[in-house]
Design goal:
The chain has about 240 residues and is an alpha/beta fold. Helices cover about 40% and strands about 20% of the residues. It has one domain: Spore Coat Polysaccharide Biosynthesis Protein SpsA, Chain A, CATH 3.90.550. Strands 3-2-1-4-7-5-8 form a 7-stranded mixed β-sheet. Strand 1, helix 1 and strand 2 (about 35-40) form a beta-alpha-beta unit. Helix 5 packs parallel to helix 8.
C-alpha cells in the first residue's frame, strides 16, 4: 500500500463525494496501490451514506470509520491513522482546499530521505492562495499562532502548523498517533511536537490553497476550547508518565 489518504469529516454530506472522487483519481494516476479512509466524527447529515454511494475506480479501497458521538477532529484523525496501512499516510481536510497533486512535493521530501513529516504551508514564497481568508479569520489565525508559540515549543522555522494538508512516513505516523492525547484542533500540532521530541525531521512544502468559507472553526465558538487544549497538550508533553524521553 503506497499511500493512505485520510479525510476527517463532520457533517460534510455536500462535499464528501467530490472529496472521495478527487482522492481516488489521484491514487489511480500516481500510486501503485492506495486507500481512502473516511474518518468521520459522528456526522448526522448523511455524510457516511454519501460516501458509501460514491463510485470508486478499480484498485482503490474506501474504509469508513464512523464511531458513535462527536469527539473532535483529532480523535477522528487518530482513529484514521491507527487504521491506515500505507507506507505513507496523509490527511487532507474536506472541501478540496488543496489539489491532491500538491502532496507529490511532500512525498518527494520523505522518499529522498529529507524528512519523516512533510507539512503543506500556505505561507511559503512559492505557495499560491487562490481564495484568501476573510479579514476576521486572518486576525483570529494570527492570534492563535501567537498564543501557540508562547505556550508550546513550536519550531520557529515552521510557517504554517495548522494547514490541513500533511503527509507522514506511515510507521512514524502510527507511532506518534498512539502517543497523542488531543481530540480536537491541536492534534496535528501535538503530532509535530512529539515528532520533534523523537528526533524526526519536519519539512514544509508550498501548496496551492483556497479558503473554505464553510469552515466550522470560528473565533467566537472555538477560542476557549482551543486554548484549553493548548494547555492540555503542554501538560501531556511535560508529564514524565507519557513514556517519552
Amino acid at each position: 500500500m503506497d499511500l493512505s489518504i485520510i479525510i476527517p469529516t463532520y457533517n460534510e454530506a455536500r462535499k464528501i463525494r467530490r472529496d472521495i472522487t478527487a482522492a481516488a483519481d489521484f491514487l489511480v494516476a500516481h500510486m501503485k496501490a492506495g486507500e481512502i479512509i473516511l474518518a468521520d466524527d459522528g456526522s448526522r447529515d448523511g455524510t457516511v451514506h454519501e460516501a458509501q454511494e460514491t463510485p470508486l475506480p478499480p484498485g482503490v479501497t474506501l474504509r469508513i470509520l464512523h464511531p458513535a458521538g462527536h469527539r473532535g477532529k483529532g480523535f477522528a484523525l487518530r482513529s484514521g491513522i491507527a487504521a491506515s496501512q500505507g507506507e505513507h499516510v496523509m490527511f487532507a481536510d474536506s472541501g478540496l482546499t488543496t489539489p491532491y497533486e500538491n502532496v507529490l512535493r511532500g512525498l518527494a521530501l520523505i522518499r529522498t530521505g529529507q524528512c519523516e513529516l512533510a507539512h503543506g504551508s500556505r505561507m511559503l514564497p512559492d505557495s499560491i492562495v487562490r481564495i484568501p481568508q476573510h479579514h476576521d479569520r486572518k486576525i483570529s489565525s494570527a492570534l492563535f499562532r501567537l498564543t501557540l508559540r508562547l505556550v508550546l515549543p513550536v519550531p520557529g522555522e515552521l510557517t504554517d502548523t495548522q494547514c490541513g494538508f500533511k503527509v507522514y512516513r506511515g510507521n512514524v505516523a502510527r507511532m506518534l498517533a498512539r502517543e497523542c492525547v488531543a481530540d480536537g484542533f491541536l492534534f496535528d500540532v501535538e503530532m509535530l511536537l512529539r515528532a520533534v521530541r523523537h528526533g524526526y525531521r519536519v519539512r514544509e512544502f508550498p501548496i496551492e490553497w483556497s479558503c473554505d468559507r464553510d469552515s466550522r472553526i470560528t473565533f467566537r465558538r472555538s477560542s476557549w476550547p482551543i486554548l484549553q487544549e493548548i494547555f492540555a497538550v503542554r501538560r501531556a508533553l511535560a508529564s514524565p508518565s507519557d513514556g517519552k524521553p
